[in-house]
Design brief:
Length: about 170
């Protein structure tokens, strides 16, 4: 120690410089360390996006890693019977591949690998009065799921549309 009373320890120097008592400074430093570790754990646990080179199987694997559900994908079902004739007419030209799996609360959750242009097709159908509101899909980068419940935990977006524009908006927890 020198005559100034400084010990050379970082927490003491900071405490003296900012007029914070030593126990308070230790508590603040502990919170900083705990917060940094928690953030690192969250970032480290963040799942990558689905491997779309594997089509709907890549989406299902991603969902299975996140939720422990959606282990078995069913391919080759009739999309019009699944989505309905109006949605099938708008969606189908922009779906590269699709399938379903089981993921609570859905008996059949649709997994869609998308081609570009679905937003424009929805706007056109909206302007022509063929559909109302927004698409009932949860969108990721190049894919979509046919559900809304629980999608906020997957980091997906909803597509909000008017006849002149569409915007992707994060799905938030209510």
């Amino acid at each position: 120690d020198d005559d100034s009373g400084r010990t050379g320890q970082p927490d003491v120097l900071l405490a003296q410089r900012f007029g914070v008592r030593r126990p308070v400074m230790r508590a603040l430093l502990a919170l900083l360390v705990v917060g940094s570790v928690a953030l690192a754990l969250l970032v480290g646990r963040a799942e990558p996006t689905p491997d779309l080179s594997r089509g709907v199987d890549g989406i299902a694997d991603w969902l299975h890693r996140l939720t422990d559900e959606c282990a078995t994908v069913r391919h080759g079902e009739d999309f019009t019977a699944f989505a309905g004739p109006v949605r099938a007419k708008v969606y189908a030209p922009y779906i590269a591949e699709w399938g379903t799996c089981s993921k609570a609360p859905y008996e059949r959750l649709g997994l869609l690998v998308l081609r570009p242009g679905l937003d424009q097709a929805w706007r056109t159908a909206l302007a022509n009065g063929e559909v109302r509101g927004d698409p009932d899909l949860a969108f990721g980068d190049g894919f979509a799921l046919t559900g809304s419940e629980g999608m906020e935990y997957l980091g997906l977006n909803r597509l909000e549309c008017t006849p002149t524009a569409c915007s992707l908006m994060p799905i938030k927890h209510h």
